[in-house]
Write a structure and sequence with these properties.
Blueprint: H1 8-44, E1 48-52, E2 55-56, H2 63-78, E3 86-89, H3 91-99, H4 106-123, E4 136-142, E5 152-156, H5 160-170, H6 173-190, H7 196-210, H8 220-238, H9 246-260, H10 264-273, E6 281-287, E7 298-303, E8 315-320, H11 324-329, E9 335-336, H12 339-345, H13 353-356, H14 358-375, E10 379-386, E11 389-397, H15 402-415
Antiparallel strand pairs: 1-2, 1-3, 3-6, 4-5, 4-6, 7-8, 7-10, 8-9, 10-11
Helix pairs in contact: 5-6, 6-8, 7-8
């Protein structure tokens, strides 16, 4: 019986197929091993650090993992200062996010859920609740200070139910509506990447229609009109409705903060100041406190000494009935903290905090001295006042002129 001839082409194809199958199998094994290694890496490390209720998991020795902002929040909490509770997702997770092609491992998602439940227990509020909604801020924070380079989202957790729950809890419908419109604008810009101008045009149009100049002159009904128009902007610009699920909002915001590590301004800042690209950023998720609930609320920034001259005087600004971004946005004239600074200015009749909130100012003065004794250096701080109660949101080493640096160093030695 004659042998059946197999063509050379078929033999080559067969060998190629075997090689291809073997390569594919090895690839599957390699990927499986890589996933095992990655999971082990996640398991070995502490990835999320809680702070609140008078104690924190971390401290400044963990600055590489917590970032500067997270380390500051942990230190202030452990020092007994008034800090809203929250948790820090470490810089290690940022590394995993980029290794996972901009995806966070499932184990981290589960850890975040655990810490979120703990935050709900500490605050007594619940994310997504119709009656007692928890709202949080989501902020970046790398090991080295990079002011203004990365992204922040405030009032996360707001949706159509939460705005009604917040109104009922605070008996302040205008505040609830204002918090919602601020959240949609910030989330829409930072997370969904809609140009801020698209929202600014809407707000300006509503103010023109109502015949007012300032945001604070809009009432609850006006602000809910803005909310509706903002949602139309999101749908038109992104092709999807504004997300109502607060857990989806939180995941999207966290990932947006991680992505902001690689935005052009952050990359350029790191290049200029020689900051390594590979260190990543932490994400700080913290219960909101509100400076925009009324005239007994405020927000501000300050240096514990004058950063230009080094003089041992409290140096800063605040705004009544405002949130943090209002201070730096330039849309309202900030007010001085101290009566002395107001007198030296001579160009404003706006009251200093020392005049109209003397009790809170006295507490802020005590915090100022506590931080300087703790860090042995001048600090740059952020704070919010809600219903005449002080809350500290950040502390970091303050930048200063060369002349100020010399005077501060000499004065602190003399002060012991």
């Amino acid at each position: 019986m004659a042998k059946k001839k197999v063509s050379t082409t078929k033999r080559k194809t067969s060998r190629a197929s075997l090689r291809s199958n073997a390569t594919t199998a090895r690839g599957r094994v390699h990927r499986k091993k890589k996933n095992v290694i990655r999971t082990a890496k996640v398991s070995r490390l502490k990835n999320i650090f809680f702070f609140g209720d008078g104690k924190a998991d971390g401290d400044r020795s963990k600055r590489d993992l917590l970032g500067g902002k997270g380390a500051g929040l942990a230190e202030m909490t452990n020092a007994g200062l008034p800090v809203p509770p929250g948790f820090t997702v470490s810089t290690n997770v940022c590394t995993l996010f980029y290794e996972g092609v901009q995806k966070v491992p499932e184990q981290i998602e589960n850890e975040m859920a655990t810490h979120l439940r703990r935050l709900e227990r500490v605050t007594g509020f619940k994310l997504g609740s119709k009656t007692d909604p928890l709202l949080v801020s989501v902020r970046s924070g790398s090991k080295f200070s990079m002011p203004g380079m990365m992204d922040t989202i405030l009032n996360l957790g707001m949706n159509d139910d939460a705005v009604e729950g917040l109104k009922a809890r605070t008996s302040n419908g205008r505040f609830a509506a204002d918090s919602y419109r601020r959240f949609i604008q910030m989330f829409g810009n930072v997370v969904i990447e809609i140009p801020k101008e698209a929202f600014d045009h809407v707000l300006d149009a509503v103010k023109d229609e109502r015949g007012v100049r300032l945001d604070t002159e809009l009432d609850e009904k006006d602000l809910l009109d803005v909310v509706g128009r903002y949602r139309d902007v999101v749908r038109r610009e992104s092709g999807r409705k504004f997300p109502q699920d607060p857990f989806e909002q939180l995941r999207m915001a966290r990932d947006a903060v991680f992505r902001s590590w690689q935005n052009p301004r952050a990359i350029e800042y790191r290049r200029i100041y020689d900051i390594p690209d590979e260190i990543g950023t932490a994400v700080n998720i913290q219960a909101m406190v509100f400076g925009n609930m009324g005239e007994d609320c405020a927000t501000g920034v300050a240096f514990t000494r004058n950063p230009a001259t080094g003089e041992n005087t409290f140096y800063g600004e605040y705004l009544l009935n405002a949130q943090g971004e209002d201070v730096v946005a330039g849309i309202r004239t900030p007010q001085h903290l101290t009566i002395a600074a107001k007198s030296n200015d001579g160009a404003t009749d706006l009251p200093a905090m020392e005049e109209i909130m003397p009790g809170v100012f006295a507490e802020l003065e005590r915090v100022r001295h506590t931080l300087e004794h703790h860090y042995h250096d001048m600090q740059d701080i952020e704070f919010t006042i809600q219903n005449n109660r002080l809350w500290m949101l950040q502390t970091r080493t303050g930048k200063r002129t060369a002349a100020a640096a010399l005077k501060i160093a000499c004065d602190m030695v003399a002060e012991g």
